[in-house]
Design brief:
It is built from three helices and 28 strands. It has about 375 residues and is mainly beta.
Length: about 375
């Protein structure tokens, strides 16, 4: 399989070349787009019919006819609602048959113009739906002795699957105090689940093996970053997590574009003490709080700069939304918005405390969680900014 590993060197170089004094915390509509602050539709209740009570919403989308499909990872269901939020039907349950999900699966959704896939990653297969949300069939990945376990991550315009496979099958082993560096491959499979080739290889966040109360765990080093990626039709968008830079690859791995923009970066040492304090406050479990307090008190090998971006989303108009890094207690979601070619359009902000699941046509789909832990799916209008 073809391997490519020079991508991160290019990002590092681009990041070091970028400076500037832009990118403040203030709200800006300079990107030419505004997400309204109040949802026009909310689905989900604390008490009521089971179809409206969500356990763990992992994904959602709007179908071609305006219906809303919500993937509940813990219920192992795909719930369909009409455009007013009324429950229409439910697909899926726990099991090993067609349109059933393994206990370890989440049901993440991937769509192009002709097909919708729901990932049954615990069983290494996918459920295929038509654009009108009717179930077609279940397809299994072809497994190969020299290829790690496949995880679906995207659906190309031609129907090919973009798949993530972790080095050594994702196994993590080491002694206390050892730093664990590893990578993953992005692979291309055809629509029957057979592997075609390797697109690229990317690094994961480094981890440190930490021993506490007799148990050893590999914990990600705080404020470390890793590349972000998204499938856009017949292209792969890869963004440097700690640098304002992007590369565009064809799905055969060929680099077909690159762009860098001006955004300031924050040194890890300047925010480390406050970051540790906020992590401690945000921890709810006593065992986790004690472990991470002990871990963060160690002399950790922090990277020079904190992450710049922590997420990437695409919208139907071709814009690329990059979610900016925030501190653990910060509920503000700020984004840098780029055009399809990677040129910076400006900054935008999404509603506080709302996890963005997906951008649909003129709509942002988000997930909220209230103080009781009740989850709801909320839809917000996305409109052009006034001139």
């Amino acid at each position: 399989m073809r391997m490519r590993s020079g991508l991160i060197v290019a990002f590092a170089a681009a990041g070091l070349a970028c400076g500037g004094d832009g990118g403040t915390r203030s709200v800006s509509d300079a990107a030419g787009v505004v997400v309204e602050s109040t949802p026009f539709l909310t689905i989900g209740v604390e008490e009521g019919e089971d179809a409206y009570q969500f356990e763990r919403v992992v994904d959602a989308l709007v179908s071609v006819d305006g219906r809303i499909l919500v993937a509940d990872g813990d219920a192992h269901e795909l719930r369909i609602f009409d455009s007013t939020g009324k429950h229409v039907s439910t697909l899926g349950r726990v099991g090993a048959g067609p349109m059933e999900f393994n206990e370890g699966s989440s049901g993440f959704l991937y769509a192009n113009a002709n097909t919708l896939l729901a990932a049954d990653e615990g069983a290494m297969r996918v459920h295929v739906l038509a654009p009108d949300l009717t179930f077609r069939e279940t397809r299994r990945f072809t497994l190969y002795p020299d290829t790690p376990r496949p995880y679906l991550q995207g659906l190309a315009a031609n129907g090919d699957w973009v798949v993530q496979a972790f080095a050594n099958g994702g196994a993590i082993r080491g002694a206390p105090g050892q730093i664990f560096n590893t990578n993953y491959q992005l692979l291309r499979y055809d629509s029957t689940g057979a592997m075609l080739d390797t697109i690229i290889q990317l690094p994961m966040r480094p981890r440190l093996f930490h021993e506490f109360e007799g148990r050893v765990r590999a914990i990600s080093i705080p404020l470390a970053s890793e590349p972000l990626f998204a499938v856009d039709g017949d292209r792969l968008i890869i963004v440097g997590g700690n640098a304002p830079a992007m590369q565009i690859h064809a799905l055969d791995g060929t680099e077909i574009g690159a762009e860098a923009w001006d955004r300031p970066r924050v040194r890890s040492a300047d925010i480390w003490d406050e970051y540790k304090r906020q992590v401690a406050v945000s921890m709810t479990g006593q065992a986790d709080s004690a472990r991470y307090a002990n871990f963060n008190a160690q002399p950790l090998p922090l990277s020079e700069f904190a992450p710049l971006y922590i997420g990437v989303k695409l919208d139907p108009s071709g814009r690329i939304w990059l979610e900016r890094f925030r501190m653990p207690l910060d509920s503000t979601r700020q984004w840098d918005v780029l055009d399809r070619d990677g040129k910076l359009l400006g900054a935008a902000e999404t509603p506080k405390g709302i996890t963005v699941l997906r951008f649909a046509k003129d709509v942002m789909i988000g997930r909220s969680r209230d103080s009781l832990g009740v989850q709801r799916v909320q839809l917000y209008r996305v409109r052009s900014a006034a001139p």
